[in-house]
Structures
1.
Amino acid sequence: WGLIPTYAFVWAAGRFTSKRPQGSELTTLVPAAWITVSAAFIMSNAFWYAFSDKVSTLSIYQFTQAVAQYYVPYLGYSMFYLGVAWATYACLNSMVFNKDRIA
């Protein structure tokens, strides 16, 4: 059940960012995405550590060392998919506005 607050945080961060005046600009999205993805990584792993019996033998330090190796791939894949989504949005948005100008 620990992913529910994690996904709620990601959703809320997206809503908050979209309400900003420059919400779809990369200078706003990249730092917001990095902070949000990093927080989601920390939250999901913290819930797993707190409620899983699979890691109960590890100290917090040992657990942190064990999951730290997954941070860069987690961040990289998340940023890649967010980049694809942003590029798709920008292309579709551009096509809609260009279509309105031509017509």
2.
Amino acid sequence: MHALVFGNVTAIIQRMYSRWSQYHTRTKDLKDFIRVHHLPQGLKQRMLEYFQTTWSVNNGIDSNELLKDFPDELRSDITMHLNKEILELSLFASASRGCLRSLSLHIKTTFCAPGEYLLRQGDALQAIFFVCSGSMEVLKDGMVLAILGETWCWLYWEKHGEGREGRDG
């Protein structure tokens, strides 16, 4: 019994060290990239803060990258589960299960740090954004037109302005 407990504790410590080592390696790579490309201080700070925040949210696990090698059938079951809140929105009420499974394979989770922009007025639309956590401000000429919160489907309307992540993250 003691050997089993010791073995489990050892495995837990090894996994923790592996993540810690991965974090420090990626941080060093990021700092080297910043140095090699002579990025300005403001951009450097934004990159480091984004990396640190996203790492703390997902512990360094990129679910999109992790799932890419799984077969479509299994991956769609997993992504249906992961995106259940989005797929249950009234927007998709009339969609067939097959359509939802296909759609779930194309949903990408992303994080936008407070103060960062998702889109700026005039940018080409490349995605539909669902605010699943936190809030987002819609700006025009620096004025807040709306604050969108969780479960909002947000499309980019060129005439309405820019979308910026809110303070909640």
3.
Amino acid sequence: MNLLTNPLYQAVVHHADEDPPRLIFADWLEEQGQPIWAEVIRTQCRRSQLGQMPWENPREYQSTLQQIEKYGPAWMMGLPRYRGVQSGLSQVLGATFVRGFPEWGQFQSIEALRNAWTRIPNESTMRRFWIGISTRNEDRDNWVRWNADEPTLSAIRELDFSPSGNGFDPIAQNAWAESPHWSGLTGIRSRFSDWDESAWRNWLIAPTKRGIRDLVIHDLDFSNSKLQAMADPEQAGRWRSLNVAYHPDAVSSETLRDLWRSPAVSRLEQWVWSGEQIHEVWFRAMEESSAPLRSVDLPNVRISATHLQRLLQSHHRLQRLRVPLANPNDLSVFQQSNIARLTELEIDLGWQAGPELEILAESPVCQSLEQLTIRVHRCPRSIRERLQQRFGDRLQLVIWER
């Protein structure tokens, strides 16, 4: 049977965010004599559910990568395979397997994606693409022409766009932003440092971009005006996930406050903020927001006990939290009963792990936790063993030492 037309595979394609169809397909593969691929699917699904990073259970992670490297080409089902890099142009760099299936296509030029496109079936798992573009003028011209007449772009669901060097000139920027063929796009990851305001607004406001719900921005020059465009009334109820990395001095606290007060984030579920300080001006607006936040990631902020308590009390739907803590006293926040019932907690400690961590084992928050990740400079073996004994089988405990 052609796997691309297999009903079990099509269930994976049409329910891309769900694990059960993948696990059912894995069972079918094992029955068909393909236990290695079946095990890769199960392992990657399990690691994804646990949010495990490569350094967590690294032996399992490396073993899975080796299996994909060895057998992956046979699992591509007609999709473009890894061919190496020749002369630095027009070559497919590879495909990344996500939860057992090829999902991220990686190309270093427009031409590479265009040449491979005819071999990417419409009904397949590969619908997310990374494209790296050089700054050569002819590449820019090709980019403009390709956007004007490539209707198959509507099949792309998520795009990781990384222009190198100085990026595109204004003509190319707006041609990219105004292309009518991005109607299927739901998420974009990019560096917009070199994009002018009109191109940025075209990305956000154009009718063909209304499907974009998830935004990851790596832009050290991110400006107030760009952030204001995200809070435009036309964006009401739009954003589901925002991950914005920028220089902390580039955006004012008042602009962040206005974003949190805008209807654009009324349905926001995931917030990742890479700033190094919490300013009361915007934090209070986030605290008062009606956004149904389920995941908050503040990787660079040594959050105070007061701010941590306010966050957990104001957003009771919160399920996942990642925060660095400044001192052992901050752990007392988790002993309170009127805070969010988290299922996943990741804390980055600014001190060596000690007996004070046992306070978590008796805290109300741990009654609902499914996974607890603790990152420390050092965790003595005796403390690690005591924590494992206290938590038992109640949850997945991961302790990572730098």
4.
Amino acid sequence: MPNNIVVIGTQWGDEGKGKIVDLLTPHCSVVA
């Protein structure tokens, strides 16, 4: 069974989610 990674924020706007996604994307085959 494959693993899933979900990054969820509670604020509207840039709260640093992009930096976390940039760190995780080399380990993922699909980013949406």
